[in-house]
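COURSE: Structural Biology Practicum
ASSIGNMENT: Worksheet 4, Part C
STUDENT ID: 0417
INSTRUCTIONS: Below are two proteins. For each, the amino acid sequence is given first, followed by its structure token string. Answer the questions at the end about the second protein only.

PROTEIN I
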Amino acid sequence: MTIAPPSDQLAADASGRRRPVRRNGRTVGRTPIGYAFVSLYALLTLAFGVVPALYAVVLAFTNADGGFAGIGNFTKVIGDFRFWPAVLHVTVYLVIWLIALVVFVVGLALLVHAVRVRWMSTALRFVYYLPGALAGASSVLLWLFVLDPTASPVSGLLKAFGFDSFVAVIQPGHLPVIFAIIAFWTGAGGWIVIMYGALNNISTEVIEAARVDGANAVQIALQIQLPLLRKWVAYMGVMSLAGGTQLFVEPQLLSQASNAVVPNDYSLNQLAYQYAFQQNDFNGAAAISLLLLVVALLLSWVFVTRGGLFEKE
């Protein structure tokens, strides 16, 4: 998100264009160091984002010999018996995860913001952020112990639900919920901190005026804070979709740990991996990656338009 500079930092010249102005003896506006930082980011994005994406486009529309294949690679992967189950798995996982993020992240952020004791609020934010400090693979390895009733610190809870073994816990029907819980535990804390910062940007005069008018905490949250968090919720949705559609590490590690109780083609990313490195079909893998990209972009467009992410206030 870009933050507009204060109006007195830029002045308009005769042509209507804005130009840097001087304040306290120094120029305020664009500087060479700013261009240096942006150019480094642009180069990395070009090298590790744009170029690989363009290469994937080339692979997706060509065959193994380099000839033009049209939509042949797409029809091949869509017709694969493993494709639609993988789509269903990722879809169910995304629905559970996104609902959990919107409900619990926003709710917990409001709760932390409502805490008036400074040290307690700081401590809660720190605790929420801790799980996100673990790398994705490390987090899944930790959850391998949590999901094993013989070693889990919550073994009593697992056994109360009728799970007496690790294999019983990770049955395919349970996996969308398990992956959503792992993803939420890993990433929700950082989003809570971000939402907390957004809540701090809401004018205190607006909140006080609502209290003077007789609004209670629930009314303030529903009628003032939540509408003003709409863009941040949309931003969270876009970023979560970008990560959620790339589900790979969690099912891959669980598949290895469970001796293939969890299939190695559970998600679309795993299926693309199978195409590329098991079947030596990089063209099919590229087709799956492009399908994922298109779907993620369309869903992100829905969040952007419905959330008014780029609307000017």
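PROTEIN II
(use this one for the questions)
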Amino acid sequence: MSVLVLVLAMGAAVCLGFGFVLQQNAAQKAPLGDFLSFRLLLDLMRVPRWLGGIGLMVAGMALGAVALGQGEVSLVEPLLATNLLFALALSRRQTRQPLGRQGWAGLALLAGGVTVFIVAGQPRGGTAISDPMRHWLIIGVMVGLALLLTAGARRSRLSSAPVLLALAAGLLYGLQDALTRVSGERFSAGGFAELMTSWQPYAVLALGVTGLVLVQSAFETGTLRMSLPALTAAQPLAGIACGVGFLGDRLHTDPGALAWEAAGLAAVVIGIILLGCHPAMPTGTGKPERVRDLQPS
């Protein structure tokens, strides 16, 4: 594994984790009428704390894009998932809660799971799949699942909407990371002209804006511990699926390696859940009256 990729990915994780906490601090005070609306972004643009969080997120996405240009999606995505550790660190400073057994267990599972997956899988680059049907099938599955989750969130009560929206955003962000990698390859091959005549960079922008609305709506309607674990778990799984599915990323596939890779990903997900449920993660939404249905009238 390249040290440069490691440094870039971990730098991205730091920025993303801190940025998500600042965004949620601001979004939880937004009016419910902005739920799943671009008006939500316009309202939040007036909040300095949210702008700071967005600035950190953009920096994290830029560092992640460079890391994706230097390494495989299947390698970078698990490293980006450690953003939850840094979100917990900032939240812990705000709430002054000790880590305790649950926090240390979650930290060990997340860090250990990432290490096990990378060591067992040994992600490495390969030849991208040229079959367009395979590309569009995987993209369609990701977008379709995100649409179903969003539709479920619109019909659900607030208890499940944040989780569903965060899962949908995670799927879109994982797909966005894969298309960012493709965009970087296009730029390397033909420069700016090649990039601007391809559809991938425009898809990256559309996925980013849509994912941002979903994430802010999730932050608006629920606690950080409800939304961030789902977002953090869905994004690397979607990214790895795209990396192996059509970017040509290769993993060891002998039975022993596959078992360890599955165990590593399972440990990552469990660790994310434990950290997300930790008392240090903020629980207040600032809107105690939020018990009504989100179904539009």
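ANSWER KEY EXCERPT:
Q1: Confidence is low (pLDDT under 50) at residues 288-297.
Q2: The two ends are 53 Å apart (CA to CA).
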